[in-house]
Design a protein that fits this description.
Family: Belongs to the aldo/keto reductase family.
Largest sheet: 8 strands, parallel, barrel
Keywords: NADP, Oxidoreductase
Pfam families: Aldo_ket_red
CATH architecture: Alpha-Beta Barrel
Domain NADP-dependent oxidoreductase: 21-272
Distance between the termini: 36 Å
Organism: Cylindrobasidium torrendii FP15055 ss-10
CATH topology: TIM Barrel
Number of strands: 10
Number of helices: 10
Bound molecules: NADP nicotinamide-adenine-dinucleotide phosphate
Number of domains: 1
Structural class: alpha/beta
C-alpha cells in the first residue's frame, strides 16, 4: 500500500481502517480481520471506542505478523475528575491489543486539557512515551492552531500527525489548521471525509463530485463513485485517510484510489468552491465552539 513519510522518519500507510463511528463500542474483530485480509495495513482505534481488543484479536485471526500492520490508538482525557496517567492508559491499551508498542499514539482532543492548562505537560508525557519506545510516533487529533502553538512552544518532538475532521463542508474552519500543519511539517490525517456523500448528502458538492466521477468512469472504463472522488481529493491534498466500511468490496475500491487518474485543477476548484457554501461538522463541536 502507498505509504507517506512522517516528520520523524517513520512511514504511515495512506489508508487507515477505523473502529470508531459505525463500530464504536462494538466488538469488531471480524471487521478488523476482514480489513486485513483485503489488504488494509493501517488500523485506527482509540481508548474511548472501547474495542481496542478487536485490533489484537483481528490481527491474530488474520494470521499476519504484528509488523505487517500500522496501529494507531488515542489517549482520551476524561472530562470530569483527574485524568488517569497517560502512560498507564497506554499500557492498558497495549495489553488489550496484545502488543508491546503502537505505531502512532495520539491525544484524542485538546479538550479538556486546554481548560485545565494541561496541554504542555501532557505533550511532555507523550514525548517520554516515544523516547521509551511504547509508541514509534506521537501526535494529536482535533487540535486547533492555538492548541498546536501552545504545545510547540518548548516541545522537543513536533507532533507527527494531527488527525482532524476534513471534507469540503469544513473548509471554512479547517483551512487554517491545514495551512499551519503543512507549514510545520505535521502530517494531516482526515476522518469523516465521506460526510458529503453520507450524512450531508444533497449539498452543493454533489454536482462537482458527480461530474468528476463521470469523467473518471469514462476514462478508466470502471465505475468511479462520488465517494471515490472525495477520497482522491483528500489524497491529492496530501491527507492520510481514515475511514471505515462494513463492505469488503468497498475496501478493494478504496485501496485502488491512488491508481485513479488525478483530479484536474478545475475539478478540485469546483469541489472546494461548492464546499465552502455549506458548513457541517460531525464531531468536536465543543472544541470549535459550534452548535451541533
Ligand atoms: N479522531 C477523532 O476524533 C475521530 C472522529 C471520528 C472518526 N474517527 C476515525 O475515523 C474513522 C472513520 O470515520 P467515519 O466513519 O466518520 O468516516 P467516513 O469515511 O466519512 O465514513 C465511513 C462510512 O461511509 C460509508 N461508506 C464507505 N464507502 C462509501 C461509499 N463508496 N459510498 C457511500 N458510503 C460509503 C461506510 O458505510 P458502509 O459500511 O455502508 O460502507 C462507513 O460507515 C472512525 O472509525 C475512527 O477510526 C476519528
Amino acid at each position: 500500500m502507498l505509504s507517506c513519510k512522517l516528520n520523524d522518519g517513520n512511514s504511515i500507510p495512506w489508508l487507515g481502517y477505523g473502529t470508531g463511528t459505525a463500530l464504536y463500542q462494538k466488538e469488531a474483530s471480524n471487521e478488523v480481520k476482514t480489513a486485513i485480509e483485503y489488504g488494509v495495513t493501517h488500523l485506527d482505534t482509540a481508548q474511548v471506542y472501547e474495542n481496542e481488543d478487536a485490533i489484537g484479536a483481528g490481527l491474530k485471526a488474520s494470521g499476519k505478523p504484528r509488523d505487517s500492520v500500522f496501529i494507531t490508538t488515542k489517549f482520551y482525557p476524561v472530562d470530569n475528575g483527574p485524568t488517569p496517567s497517560l502512560r498507564q492508559t497506554l499500557l492498558n491499551s497495549l495489553e488489550a491489543m496484545s502488543t508491546d508498542y503502537v505505531d502512532l499514539f495520539l491525544i484524542h482532543a485538546p479538550y479538556p486539557l486546554n481548560e485545565r492548562g494541561e496541554l504542555k505537560s501532557t505533550w511532555k508525557e507523550m514525548e517520554d512515551i516515544k523516547k521509551d519506545g511504547l509508541a514509534k510516533s506521537i501526535g494529536v487529533s482535533n487540535y486547533r492552531v492555538q492548541d498546536l502553538k501552545e504545545i510547540l512552544d518548548g516541545a522537543t518532538v513536533i507532533p507527527a500527525v494531527n488527525q482532524i475532521e476534513y471534507h469540503p463542508y469544513v473548509l471554512d474552519t479547517a483551512e487554517e489548521i491545514y495551512k499551519f500543519c503543512t507549514e510545520k511539517g505535521i502530517r494531516l490525517a482526515s476522518y469523516s471525509g465521506l460526510t458529503p456523500v453520507t450524512s450531508a448528502k444533497g449539498g452543493p458538492v454533489d454536482a462537482p463530485l458527480a461530474a468528476a466521477a463521470e469523467r473518471l468512469s469514462k476514462e478508466t472504463g470502471k465505475q468511479v463513485k462520488p465517494a471515490n472522488v472525495l477520497t482522491k481529493w483528500l489524497l491529492q491534498r496530501d491527507f492520510i485517510v481514515i475511514t471505515t466500511t462494513s463492505k469488503s468490496s468497498r475496501i478493494t475500491e478504496m485501496l485502488s484510489i491512488p491508481d485513479l487518474p488525478e483530479l484536474t485543477a478545475t475539478e478540485i476548484e469546483a469541489i472546494e468552491t461548492e464546499g465552502k457554501k455549506y458548513h457541517k461538522r460531525m464531531w468536536m463541536h465543543h472544541v470549535f465552539g459550534e452548535q451541533r
